[in-house]
Design brief:
Blueprint (H helix, E strand, L loop, with lengths): L7 E11 L2 E7 L11 E4 L2 E7 L5 E6 L1 H6 L10 E6 L18 E11 L2 E8 L3 H4 L10 E4 L2 E4 L7 E6 L1 H6 L10 E6 L1 H13 L2
Antiparallel strand pairs: 1-2, 1-6, 2-5, 3-4, 3-6, 4-5, 7-8, 7-12, 8-11, 9-10, 9-12
């Protein structure tokens, strides 16, 4: 489990295909603290560390399902990826409950200056069946964008805005997002459970 508070951006060093899988090698400041089998969030996707060769890098493996559902299939060497290690159970939940299970992608449609901060607008494919299961945003609710825990504003049936303060912009890959960029979304797990309960009780 994660909190959506990104620790830093890791940089992609290499991408190697292995049948339907992809092995992604990255570098970041806490490589020496990682262990094999440890879970790390990459742009909001929970991936397992499979190799730590000792050269300041580590490797994770993304399967075909992950590549098709997230933007990890689009990354290339040199790209910055938001990373967060799993949350300590005795720590503060500074963001919100994030599972690291990306639901779908969205596309940035607008970026607006907000006197020092920035508003980013994202649009995603609306599916009525999935929406009934909690795949939607609500005003002032939580959403995870590329692994970053954010508060929703201006929520519509298939889009929403988020406000990005300078610190978040400078310390995550929001600094690389442009109009047309594809990002990963994870909708709020509490909303999914409530939607499921309503579905069951309605039967």
């Amino acid at each position: 489990m994660f909190s959506g508070i990104v620790e830093e951006t890791a940089f992609v060093k290499s991408i190697v295909k292995d049948n339907g899988n992809v092995n992604i090698t990255l570098s970041c400041s806490f490589v020496d603290e990682l262990k094999i089998d440890q879970s790390v969030s990459h742009n909001g996707v929970c991936l397992t560390v499979v190799s730590i060769p000792g050269d300041g890098t580590y490797t994770v493996t993304a399967i075909a399902e992950t590549l098709s559902r997230s933007n990890l299939g689009l990354i290339k060497p040199g790209d910055a990826v938001n990373v967060e290690r799993s949350m300590l159970m005795n720590g503060r939940l500074d963001g919100h409950i994030v599972q690291g299970h990306v639901d779908q992608t969205a596309k940035c449609t607008h970026i607006e200056d907000a006197d020092g901060s920035r508003y980013f607008t994202f649009q995603y494919s609306f599916d009525k069946v999935l929406a009934a299961k909690g795949y939607f945003t609500v005003e002032k609710g939580s959403v995870t964008v590329n692994g970053v825990s954010l508060t929703v504003c201006d929520s519509t049936i298939d889009s929403f805005r988020v406000a990005i303060i300078p610190y978040t912009f400078e310390h995550t890959n929001f600094r690389d997002i442009k109009v047309g960029s594809v990002v990963n979304l994870e909708f709020d797990i509490i909303g999914k459970y409530l939607s499921r309960m309503m579905e069951i009780n309605g039967k």
